[in-house]
UniProtKB/TrEMBL annotation:
One of its GO terms (biological process) is transmembrane transport. Keywords: Receptor, Signal, Transport. The keyword Cell membrane does not apply. It holds the Pfam family DctP. It comes from Franzmannia pantelleriensis. This is Tripartite ATP-independent transporter solute receptor, DctP family. Residues 1-25 form the signal peptide. The keyword Signal applies. GO terms for cellular component: outer membrane-bounded periplasmic space. Belongs to the bacterial solute-binding protein 7 family.
């Protein structure tokens, strides 16, 4: 009797654990990394441990693809190049980690384009709202010569930039009210939402145009600022919102898709200069392969993360085309203010790539 009761308890506990882990899985069914192919460098060209700092968590597509980057380097150099990844802003925020690349106190980081505009101003083109209406268009832009030329402009800054990753479409969350229009952001009889933005003036303009109180802040501080009520909300892709547990302190989400700012995989020029040319070539190749894998993972994550957030209690407002159009109209002044500064030609070139993709 005692034995069977014990068995029953175990069975119930097991079923509960299974149900809980199933309902609260930490990642979707993700594609395995592509096989590692290509020549192995057997010659001893020196050993290097490359330290990569990231803002995001271990469950993020960014972290998983960075591990794959490390696996490529290690397998193709018989373990002479190794990579250690430090997630969760533990080494600093995007701005600090880029400075660390300049001084050589960190080897690599993968920040958003938005804070990287400090080095290459024209990257602010990605901050323009509703510029990249589909993922296909975004990918075509990230692979275009126009966008790749912007990475070359890091030359001379102490930073070497290799490729774009996907951060994803940014969505609004907050702890105050459901948002389905710019008026809900601004609040008619009540005050506008206090929204954390990335540290970038175009992002600030977007939220000013929507009537919010924008508060620029480093990513690593966002969770506690929301927990303490210092800010009402923030905006990030669903995958980041989920993997950073923002749903624990944010009751409302809106599928605004207002901006698509990529990540950039970059290395300290000091680290780069220490690598043998054969290793340099391999790093560039591995960065491009990791980028392609990251974009795939981020795509697989996106809707799944939104649905998970809903299951975990976040009230998510899906917006129809008319509702999105209202947001688009409200942020038009951002183009008037920033397109001339970013460069009308650059904006037009990107818009042309978008149009060509949409017509394909
Ligand atoms: O590693 C990248 C993150 O640090 C950061 O860029 C995340 O999108 C982000 C944000 O909102 O700051």
């Amino acid at each position: 009797m005692h034995f069977s009761l014990h068995k029953l308890t175990l069975a119930i506990t097991g079923a509960t654990l299974f149900a809980t882990s199933f309902a609260h899985a930490n990642t979707p069914d993700l594609s395995d990394p592509p096989p590692i192919e290509g020549e192995v460098i057997t010659e001893d060209l020196g050993s290097h441990n490359i330290r990569v700092g990231l803002g995001l968590a271990e469950t993020s597509p960014l972290y998983i693809s960075t591990q794959h980057f490390g696996d490529i380097l290690s397998e193709r150099t018989e373990g002479r190049l190794t990579v250690d990844v430090f997630p969760n802003s533990q080494l600093g925020d995007d701005a600090q980690m880029m400075e660390m690349l300049q001084t050589g106190s960190l080897d690599m980081t993968i920040p958003s384009t938005s804070p990287a505009t400090t080095y290459v101003e024209e990257l602010a083109v990605f901050d323009l709202p509703f510029l990249l209406p589909s993922r296909e268009a975004a990918i075509a832009v990230m692979e275009s010569d126009v966008a790749l030329d912007l990475l070359d402009q890091f030359d001379g800054t102490g930073i070497k930039a290799f490729a774009y990753h996907e951060n994803g479409y940014r969505q609004l969350t907050n702890s105050v009210r459901a948002v389905e229009s710019p008026e809900d952001v601004a609040g008619l009889d009540v005050s506008g939402l206090t929204i954390r933005t990335m540290e970038n003036p175009v992002q600030l303009s977007i939220w000013e145009a929507l009537g919010a109180n924008p508060t620029p802040m480093a990513f690593g501080e966002v969770f506690s600022a929301m927990e303490q009520g210092v800010i009402d909300g923030q905006e990030n892709p669903w995958s980041t919102i989920l993997t950073s547990n923002f749903h624990e302190v944010q009751d409302y989400g809106s599928e605004t898709r207002h901006v698509y700012t990529p990540f950039i995989i970059m290395m300290s020029e000091r680290t780069w200069d220490r690598l043998d040319p054969a290793y340099q070539e391999l790093v560039e190749e591995a960065a491009r392969e990791a980028a392609a894998y990251e974009i795939q993972l981020a795509t697989e994550y996106d809707d799944w993360a939104r649905d998970q957030l809903e299951e975990r209690g976040m009230q998510i407002t899906r917006l129809d085309d008319d509702q999105i159009a209202a947001f688009q109209e409200a942020v038009q002044p951002v183009y008037d203010q920033w397109a001339p500064r970013i460069g009308e030609d650059l904006v037009a070139e990107i818009q042309q790539i978008v149009e060509d993709t949409m017509n394909d």
